[in-house]
Amino acid sequence: MRRKVMYFFAIFACVLCSVSVSAKAAGTKGLIEDGVYAGSLSLGGLTSSQAVEKIRAYVEELTNKEITLRVDAEMERTLAAGELGLHWSNPELITEAMSFGASGNVIERYKAKKELQENNQILELKLGLNEGEIRSVLESLAEEFDREPVEASLSRKNDKFIVIPGESGRGLAIESSLQKIFKALLEEWDHDATLIALEVEERTPLHSEEELSKVTDVLGSYTTSFSGSAAGRVANVSNGCAKVNGITVYPGEEVSVHDLMAPYTAKNGYDLAGAYISGRVVDVVGGGVCQVSTTLYNAILLAELEVVERHNHSMTVSYVPVSADAAMAESSGKDFRFANNTEYPIYIEGYTTEKNKITFNIYGHETRDPSRTVRYESEILEVIPPAADVIYTNDSLPVGYLVTEGSHTGYKSRLWKIVTVGGVEQPRELVNKSNYKQSPRMATVGTGTADPVIREQIMAAVASGNIDTIKATVGAINAAAAGGM
């Protein structure tokens, strides 16, 4: 019995010795055991660096596989998988592959080797994609494919509204398409050329024709006159009005009148005309469009829509009372903006007449109390008289040349909203406060002459500091010259 026990231990010791020597030899070689795979790739007998190169070469082949992205039946784009950022994403599997049969105690290593002889150890070869590159591809496709919906709109002919139906749009659903590509290539792909149908969505108009059919009532109307304006200003008022006419504004939408009328260029239909710049009237392309915004401002006030932005002119204008104007100035960022704060669409009608009048009508769906009336009243808080005349002399211009510019009285004012309901006046509401600069009379006087007597006369008139005196002197000098002829 004792001999049998000693014999058993001797055999077991030999086995352990054999396994130990074998494991030591494998560890010394630094090779991956046979039976270890990365996906379908056998890594047995390779060093770690050889295994890395083998996997990289395989993934490099995959990056050249054709991936077709189908948007719809008429639009596809085929590209290499590498253009979607395909790459090997778990290089740590090499460490795991090297550890089989080379870690643990002698018995654990022996068991691992025996297991590999019977069953291959398959490690997952994970691939990754670059979200940024895929998103860039999808956005490029969307630029070609997407079509925004067209909202229903209104036109007005022969005093009747015509509803113009809207159109549905379409769009590439980028986020869901992105996820579909990830799933197709990382979970379902057979590593061959493949086609992925992207997600497309219908984009419907936000508003309906039924909403537009509610637009039947005049909510506010206002008219101003530009008779007596020069031809350029007449053209600018008419052109600016036409660019605002016919717009439909849905509930909650905001309108920039500057954006509707700009740019103020000859190419966009504008002429040279006077405008206020630094306290003077200067000819600029588009001069006069402020009368468009001002007339619209007053119609908007009467319709009781929300005024988002409004600025007064630097000096008063003649076509509305103080505080009832709305200036436009691209150089200083002045704009007139309003919003539709009703529950129904509104339609802006604007037109000019042969008698040089401009009118804006605001159409919508009337929900106000029939007994409600709205009017606006300007209040002058302070009058600022013009300063003394300002006179500019110019020796390069002949005596007799005289160009004058009228003065402007300055004001501090405010505008009140006055509402009556059932004949009872409600508490007044302050609409705005406005400050208008005073501007003195200005004159440019020609003083160029070789006649010392005439020069003395004109310089004496200039020294008076009074434009009326200069006018009288210039008149006398011109009369004398005419009589001498």
Summarize the structure.
By secondary structure, the protein is α+β, with helices and mostly antiparallel strands. It has 12 helices and 28 strands. A hairpin with a 4-residue loop joins strand 20 (346-352) and strand 21 (357-364).
What this model shows, in words?
- With 485 residues, the chain is of the alpha+beta class.
- Among the domains are: 214-368, no CATH class; 377-417 and 431-485, Resuscitation-promoting factor rpfb fold (Single Sheet), CATH 2.20.230.
- The protein contains twelve helices and 28 strands.
- The strands form ten sheets. It has a four-stranded antiparallel beta sheet. Strands 22, 25, 26 and 27 form a four-stranded antiparallel beta sheet that branches. Strands 2-1-6 form a three-stranded mixed beta sheet, with helices on one face.
- Helix 11 packs antiparallel against helix 12.
- The chain is elongated.
- The model is unreliable at 1-28 (pLDDT under 50).
Question: How is the secondary structure organized here?
Answer:
Layout: H1 2-29, E1 36-38, E2 41-42, H2 48-63, E3 66-72, E4 75-80, E5 87-88, H3 93-99, H4 106-118, E6 121-123, E7 127-128, H5 131-145, E8 153-157, E9 160-164, E10 169-172, H6 174-186, E11 194-197, E12 200-203, H7 209-212, E13 217-225, H8 231-244, E14 248-249, E15 254-256, H9 257-261, E16 272-277, E17 280-285, H10 289-303, E18 306-309, E19 337-339, E20 346-352, E21 357-364, E22 372-384, E23 390-398, E24 402-405, E25 410-421, E26 424-425, E27 429-436, E28 442-448, H11 452-463, H12 467-484
Parallel strand pairs: 1-6, 3-11, 23-28
Antiparallel strand pairs: 1-2, 3-4, 5-7, 8-9, 10-12, 13-21, 14-20, 15-19, 16-17, 18-19, 20-21, 22-25, 24-28, 25-26, 25-27
